[in-house]
Design goal:
This protein is mainly α and about 250 residues long. The protein contains twelve helices and no strands. It is about 75% helix and about 0% strand. Helix 2 runs parallel beside helix 4 and helix 2 packs parallel to helix 9. The termini are far apart.
Length: about 250
């Protein structure tokens, strides 16, 4: 856990971390807002009751999975197909969790469960940027929790807005507002491309996701993710071997 500044109550330090997390995710919240409105609008014009859409945002809290599930429900897909498809789409969260695990492993189970429930693409980007510069096991959950809770409340707010006012703008989903989410993902990915292995992994995953986009149940996306991870891991191993060889050569001089 982080230690409070001398003379400062621990609760005050926790509040500052919580506030910092909520503040740092504001740009991501702006990008998610049109996405939430469009989701609410689609629910209002689809086969579900309004409260079904809000319940989905409250319980699922995963924009891409919610959009896919909504489309499958409208197409009268079976429960098994809806469950399997959304599972595949959200498997990327396993990678997010594995990345953040060393930084939250020391936390009590109640905190790990709460943070896991609030984990989204945007929350991962903000939390990882915060954790990556710190030693694993030395940071508490409050920054992560602040970012996650702020994004959660933001998603609920804009879902409600879409549900209540989307019917007044029937062509809203065709205005291209969903590009805001694309821009958000670009903002998430680009700052991470600080080394060749990251760039190669991103290019591989992006190219294959485009080529494999016609695969059923979004399996192309999953395959592209695994291919990108494989490329990144192989390049990381190669760079590690090269560093080891250089150190060995320097020691032998």
């Amino acid at each position: 856990m982080t230690h409070p500044i001398s003379g400062q109550p621990a609760s005050s330090g926790h509040l500052k971390e919580f506030t910092a997390g909520a503040r740092d995710i504001i740009p991501m919240m702006v990008g998610a807002a049109p996405f939430g409105v469009i989701f609410g609008t689609l629910v209002a014009s689809g086969p579900l009751h309004l409260w079904h859409g809000q319940l989905m945002s409250l319980v699922v809290f995963a924009g891409s999975a919610q959009f896919i599930a909504l489309g499958l429900i409208a197409g009268h897909a079976s429960f098994a197909v809806i469950w399997a498809t959304t599972l595949v789409v959200n498997l990327r969260h396993v990678l997010y969790s594995a990345t953040l695990a060393p930084h939250v492993a020391h936390l009590p189970a109640r905190w790990r469960w709460a943070l896991g429930a609030l984990l989204t693409d945007e929350v991962f980007a903000v939390a990882w940027e915060h954790y990556r510069h710190r030693t694993p096991g030395t940071v508490g959950p409050h920054y992560f929790f602040g970012a996650g809770l702020a994004m959660y409340l933001n998603w609920q707010l804009w879902t409600v807005a879409g549900l209540l006012f989307g019917a007044a703008f029937p062509g809203l989903q065709s205005l291209g507002l969903d590009f805001a989410m694309v821009a958000t993902f670009i903002a998430i990915v680009v700052p991470q491309l600080v080394a060749l292995r990251y760039l190669a992994a991103a290019v591989t995953a992006g190219a294959l996701a485009f080529l494999w986009q016609t695969w059923p149940y979004k399996l192309g996306l999953l395959g592209a993710v695994f291919a990108g991870v494989a490329v990144g891991v192989l390049l990381s191993m190669s760079e590690s071997r090269q560093r080891h060889q250089r150190k060995t050569a320097e020691a032998a001089r």
